User: Fold Type I restriction modification DNA specificity domain-containing protein from Eubacterium coprostanoligenes.
Amino acid sequence: MGKIDTSKWEPFKIRSLFTVKRPAARSQSKYDDGDVPFVASGNHNNGVLKYLCPKTGEILDKGNCITVSPIDGSAFYQKNDFLGRGGAGSSIIMLYNDSINEYSGCFIATIISTVCKKYYYSDMANKDVIAEETIMLPVDENHQPDFSYMEEYMKNREIAVSASLTKLHSAKQSAVFRKIDVKEWRNFHLYDIFEIDSGTKLDKAKMDTTIPKISFVGRSNFNNGITQKVNEIKGLTPYDSGCLTLALGGAYLGSCFIQEEPFYTSQNVAVLIPKENITFEAKQFIASAIFKESQNNYRAFIKELNAHIKRNFVIKLPVNTDGDPDYDYMTAYISKIKKQSSHTLEALQAI
Assistant:
């Protein structure tokens, strides 16, 4: 599907289109597991952190709305009623307009996410700030949001994505993507493989950007964790390229990236310095293992990595005949995935 012509779109303040609300104060730790989605400030799984059982007589937040994370601006359409995380600065923001539906809601949520991705954990938005944001939307002959166009566009995208998923399903059947046998793998502490440094712990808001040439890595899972470019600080040597960065807490807990240029870090971002020469592909393999372990066994704001990363954080890796990490296997595996993915992308582009 070609690029959308936005030349005739018009600006709208979010507050002019939506009733802007925040949910009641509630914490997931005070609920039993159930079947009602608990929507928090995460940027994946439609913002759903887990499923809970509402308290007796509790009124759910109404569906057919868009939820926005003040942490990074991630926005999602919520079709059904839900329990929203409220009562703190990072509680979600809810946008209501009776004219939207699942398709137009997803269309607008995507635009809001794009506009509001500038927000960051240390520089969060709030209900009033989000309400004042301006978004560009297609309009009808009366210069009002053209919800019919949005719906039709998203339905066409749904058809295209369905075709793409068919292609991906075929690719998944290849040997490269079959489930890996990990029964012979071993657990390794991160300190077995890396020197673990606490980072430069700088405040993004105080950084000089007049001559930006050094990457500034924060707790983000976008753009390799790089939130901006900053000036080099006299007397503070940046970390070398080739090191890995790891978000220790917050909404992007476990986000792990290989930095390809010299960099500084914000607070709560660890730097992993390889103890030996490791290929880029093997580092990618390890970064994925770190992220998976973080997502499976740790929780943002509840059980974060800070207290564990230098002590008892372990990842499972393939081993060679000496019982050491098998970097050759990791390199070959990631290389095969890259090759297969390249072929799949070529096939998708032909759709």
